[in-house]
Amino acid sequence: MTSCIFCKIVAKEMPAKIVYEDDTSVAFLDINPQAPVHILVIPRKHFASAEETEEADAPVIGHLHRVAAKLAQEFKITDGYRIVLNTGRGAGQSVFHFHLHLLGGRIFHWPAG
Ligand code: AMP
Fold first, then answer.
1. Burial bucket for residue 5 (CB in 10 Å: 0-12, 13-18, 19+)
2. Is the CB–ligand 1 distance for residue 5 below 6 Å?
3. Which end of the chain is least crowded, N or C, by CB within 10 Å?
C-alpha cells in the first residue's frame, strides 16, 4: 500500500531502526517509546488491523508472536513483557498496518489503560 508508512519501512523507502527481519516480518524500534524496550513487529504483507485479517493470515500472526518472544529474549526483558495489539481508533490504533507492540524493561500494571 503506497501511502502506508509501515509499508514504506518494509520497502526500505523510509528509515527505521530495524532489529530483525525475515521473509514474513520486520521488527523495528518504536519512534516514540513507551518503555525502555519498545519494538514494533509487523508483517511484510499489508493488512490494516486485526479486523481485516483472514484465516489465511493466521500463520503470519502466529509468526509475529514468535518473533516478539525471541526478541524479548534477545533484549533481555523476559522478567515480564507485554505484547499489545491496538485495534481501531478507540483502542489507540494510529497506524493502520497490523503491528504488535513488544514492551519491556519496566513494571506494567493491569488492567492496561
Ligand atoms: P498504534 O498507536 O498502536 O497504531 O501504534 C503505532 C506506533 O507506531 C506508535 O507507537 C508510534 O510511535 C509508532 N510509529 C509511528 N511512526 C513510526 C515510525 N516512522 N517509526 C517507528 N515507529 C513509528
1. middle
2. yes
3. C
User: Is the C-beta atom of 91 inside 6 A of ligand 1?
Assistant: no
- The whole model's pTM is what? 0.98
Indicate the domain borders of the chain.
5-104
Q: How many angstroms from the chain centroid is the CA of residue 55? A: 19
Query: Ligand 1, closest atom to CA 85?
Result: 3
pLDDT tier, 43 (very low <50, low <70, confident <90, very high otherwise): very high
Report whether residue 31 contacts ligand 1, using a CB cutoff of 6 Å: yes
**Is there a catalytic annotation at residue 101?**
no
